[in-house]
Specification:
The chain has 261 residues and is of the alpha+beta class. It is built from twelve helices and eight strands. It folds into two domains: 76 residues, Winged helix-like DNA-binding domain superfamily/Winged helix DNA-binding domain (Arc Repressor Mutant, subunit A, Orthogonal Bundle), CATH 1.10.10; 171 residues, GAF domain (Beta-Lactamase), CATH 3.30.450. Helices cover 47% and strands 18% of the residues. Strands 5-4-3-8-7-6 form a six-stranded antiparallel beta sheet.
Length: 261
């Protein structure tokens, strides 16, 4: 028996909405404006099928036609809508319950961090009940290059954005050339990684296990972290369990944010 198609597994269908979303998603992947015929061919539809949808999207301000060529491109309307929601509020709201559950599940404190200027900002922390554990204070600001989470987040920025950021970061520009090269190689090794496990460069005897949440390189991007005492049998033995729990809770946060994985 063949696998069910997407249309068979969906509970409700909205063909017109599908067409509109297909157009927006396709235009978002293209660098140059496209004609009605080019869009239709890419979506395997006829030009007449997408004509009314393009007119509607244009009237609502989601696409516009370039003067002269008449080709279509996206406007900043979607960007405007997304930025009506405060990214910090969205992350905190999505992370609160998963983090509380994570702390109780693993018996360790966990925190959520984001890049804020030259620092990593601890946006939220959750502690387990009746446990002695390491804690990182909510609101703490730590130089981004000295953190496991900061390196993980930076590695998943676009190369252009990362280069521009590092070029303005005193901690990076003040490094000797060999140090800069070593850091760039470390970041390259973390590209597309969903987690990073490394000894803390801030506190001796502590190891950080960090997992990405949100959209890499965007305002809605952070790292969910457990910090534990390294060099102990129980700490190292529990790493696979910690990582599995972190990834599961990160997936919950992403679902709450509406991010498909």
């Amino acid at each position: 028996m063949s696998a069910p198609t997407v249309s068979e597994t969906r509970r409700y269908g909205a063909p017109a909405l599908d067409k509109g979303l297909d157009i927006l998603e396709h235009l978002s992947r293209e660098m140059a404006p496209l004609s009605q015929l080019e869009i239709a061919r890419a979506l395997e539809r006829t030009p007449s099928e997408i004509y009314r949808m393009l007119m509607c999207l244009e009237e609502r301000g989601y696409v516009m036609r370039e003067a002269g060529s008449g080709k279509f491109r996206l406007t900043l309307r979607l960007y405007e809508l997304s930025h009506r929601q405060n990214s910090t509020t969205l992350l905190r709201k999505a992370a609160r319950l998963p983090m509380e559950m994570l702390a109780e599940e693993v018996g360790q404190a966990c925190h959520l961090s984001v890049i804020h200027g030259p620092n990593l900002l601890v946006l939220m922390e959750r502690m387990p009940s009746c446990q002695v554990c390491l804690a990182v204070g909510e609101g703490s600001r730590i130089p981004v290059l000295r953190t496991t989470s900061g390196k993980l987040l930076l590695a998943n920025w676009s190369e252009a954005a990362r280069t521009a950021f590092l070029g303005q970061l005193e901690d990076f520009t003040a490094m000797p050339q060999a140090g800069r090269g070593e850091l760039l190689r470390a970041l390259a090794a973390l590209e597309d990684a969903d987690h990073h496990h490394s000894p803390s460069s801030l506190t001796e005897g502590v190891t950080d296990l960090s997992v990405r949440v949100g959209v890499p390189g965007s305002d809605v991007a952070g790292a969910l972290v457990i910090s534990y005492l390294s060099g102990t049998r129980s700490g190292e033995k529990n790493v696979p369990r910690y990582l599995k729990a972190l990834q599961a809770r990160a997936a919950e946060i992403n679902r709450d944010l509406g991010i498909a994985r």
